[in-house]
Amino acid sequence: MQNLKNKTKNSLLWSAIERFFTQTFQLSITLILARILGPSAFGLVGMLAVFIAIANVLIDSGFSSALIRKKDHCDDDLVTAFYYNILMSGVCYLIIFFIAPYVAVFYHQPELEYILRLLGIIILINSFMFIPKLKLTLAMDFKTQAKISIISVSIGGVLAIIMAVLGYGVWSLVCQMILSAVCSVILFNLFFPWIPNGKITKISFNYLFGFGSKLLISSLLDVVYNNLYLIIIGKKFSPAIVGQFTQANQLASVPAMTLTGIIQRVTYPMFSHIQDKTDKLEDLFFLTLKMAAVFIFPLVIGIAIIARPMLTLVLGVQWQDAANLLSILCIGYMLYPIHAINLNLLQVKGRSDLFLKLEVIKKIIGITILFITIPFGLLAMCIGFCITSYASLFLNTYYTSKLTKISQWQQCKKLLPIWLASVSSALIGYALGLYVYNIAWLQIMTTLFFSLLFYIIYLIVFQKKLTQNLLSMLRG
To answer: Which residues cross the membrane (predicted)?
Structure first.
């Protein structure tokens, strides 16, 4: 158990380094490109995100989660998953290649045909790093993954900026994504070379697909639903407005998803290791939940309250329309880590059937709210997204309570004070920042300083035990 604890601490550290640096650098590159290229270029790429995302889900088919959960996986399991991955990537690319002209017609943007066909190559490239990346995750070796991500993102980002400055427009973003994928595949296979050493078996496929198929369907629902906003906005509005929404959605989601990803990619294999030790699993669940909330809640709400001066200062006035969208989306994304950790527990418990059922129910609710809000415009659609997020929290925690002794009230009792403190501190900081609204950088600094000050005071006074745990972890 001590060995697992040490491995987890080391993995968490390197996962944090990899995610933080990669996402920070990627976001910095994106902001630079956004200032150079403007909203339209990002809108064109955003319109195609759903097709690449669906292909990635089909290629994985839940096999990676199935292999991580299976304690006694063998070479035949890996070989079966590998060749399935290769086959599905080829099929998906062919489909993308042939539907590209129809996608261009649907959006009334002729250049999307060529952009989609070129972006589709990423699907073929990524299939060759499936097993090396999986093996590193199973070994909880996030140090190597950190090195690979940092190098790949850096090379792709530098190329994109050079191309943008030279006037290549949207193709700067396309080439950035392809080059980053190529670098990742090369480095994964250099750092962790893997040669198929087994055979494709029906037993392996039945297990992998039996567990993964339900995750596949739920992931497809999730991807289609999450990109439904972009599909509708892309059809209804111009590429520039799609770009505004894409940028707002990225700025709202990246911080929450990055920090959640750091926790999730470490805790899922760790939860799997102790899945039979109920008390330890539930203790770890609560600790993970509170640690995620204490960092992510104030971070995301902090972005919401500085949205307008931040976009004006960093991206220029051409991106100001994204400010209100960003603030609203942040309120919904605050709960992202809580969703993810609860769903992790369902997978660890082996209840991919409940996982699927839950996703279907949530998507029905979400789509209903989406279509109700469409006539009222983009701002109303974003408000609907927030309502869906909070409704989903009720459902996620309900199913967790059915599988464990962790009740909805227990989760609410631990999380609500942190949520209220984050929002209250942010509102105080926002109100004080309004006194210097005419100087963007000073408004940002003032708002964040007082928000953080009041939040830290709350932690010290009302969350003493949690604060001690945090300090202990940082010292450790």
So the answer is: 12-34, 40-59, 80-108, 114-136, 148-171, 177-195, 207-225, 291-311, 323-344, 364-395, 416-435, 441-462
Compute the distance between CA of residue 260 and CA of residue 292 in angstroms, rounded to an integer.
7
The Cα 342–Cα 471 span in angstroms is 25
By residue count, the chain amounts to: 476
Please write the tens of the pLDDT for every residue from 335-378: 888 888 887 777 666 666 677 778 788 888 988 998 899 888 88
Structure tokens, 38: 């403007």
> Which amino acid is it at 193?
P
CA distance 449 to 243: 30
Scanning the structure block, which residue is given the tokens 């699993």?
281
Contact of 172 with 160, CB cutoff 8 Å: yes
Q: Are the C-beta atoms of 78 and 198 separated by less than 8 Å?
A: yes
Residues 6+ apart with CB under 8 A from 472: none
Rg (C-alpha) for the chain, rounded Å, is: 22
Token digits for 86?
Answer: 């290769």
Q: Which two tokens stand for residue 299?
A: 């971070």
Q: Count of CB atoms within 10 A of residue 320's CB?
A: 14
Residue 450: is its pLDDT beyond 80?
A: yes
Whole-number Å distance between alpha carbons of 388 and 415: 18
What contacts 174, CB < 8 A, 6 or more positions away?
Answer: 45, 115, 118, 119
- What gap in Å lies between CA 15 and CA 266, rounded to an integer? 8
- The answer to whether residue 226 scores a pLDDT higher than 60 is yes
| Tokens (6 digits) for 124 | 């073929």
Structure tokens given for 298:
């104030």
pLDDT tens track for 248-292: 888 888 777 777 777 666 666 666 666 566 667 777 778 778 888
Residue 227 φ then ψ, to 5°: -95, 0
